[in-house]
Every structure is written in structure tokens, then in C-alpha cells.
Amino acid sequence: MTTTPTIARIWRGRTTPENADEYESYNRANGVPPLLKTALGVQLLREDRETETWFTTISYWADMDAMTAFTKGDPETVHHLPRDEDLLMELPDRIQIHQILVDQQHLR
To answer: Which branch of life, at top level (predicted)?
Structure first.
């Protein structure tokens, strides 16, 4: 099995500015840890706008088989956290799956 990611799984959701800090904490505590146990890497991104805050979670996988094993089925199916319905403006209905074509990171 390779340890180089070839697949990125991307989830996006948005919440109100009033719920943003709570959702960030909730996602860090409940959404990210399961990914950290099995994915090769995870990024949680936040974009604050005037009327909404977007969150993006990107997980990196060796291949589709590894990602499918984690999701226990179709990796494009959204698995909502229990409080997503209360904290998000709407429940996201799709996951994006991208092949990684260039993986060059510059750390400073």
C-alpha cells in the first residue's frame, strides 16, 4: 500500500456567523478525529464572509479502496454529523472526489 495520497475527498458546508465558532469546535472534536485515524492527511479550512461562514474538510487517501473502506460504502455519500442539521444552514448533498495530479507542498 502506498503512503502517497492519490485521492482528495472534499466536503463543504456553511453556517451562520453566529454558529461558526461552535461549528468549528464541534467539527474539530467530532468530524476530524475519525479522519485522522485512517486518512493520510486532513485539512479543515474556514472562510468567514459577511453573512455566512464556509467550512471545507479535505481528506487525503492512498486510493479509492482505502477511502471506500473508511466510508463503508460509496465514498461520495455524505455522512452528516449528528448536530449538522442544527448548526449548518443546509445539509450538504455531495462530496467531491478529486484525483491528485500534482502534490507539491512548500512549507516555510
So the answer is: Bacteria
Residue type at position 62: A
In a domain, 76, yes or no: yes
- 108 in any annotated domain: no
Query: Which amino acid does the sequence have at 23?
Result: Y
Three cell numbers, residue 102: 500534482
CATH number of the domain that residue 74 is part of: 3.30.70.100
Q: Is the pTM of this model over 0.70?
A: yes
What is the model's pLDDT at position 1? 47
Q: Which grid coordinates are listed for 3? A: 503512503
Instruction: Compute φ and ψ for 7, nearest 5 degrees.
Output: -130, 135
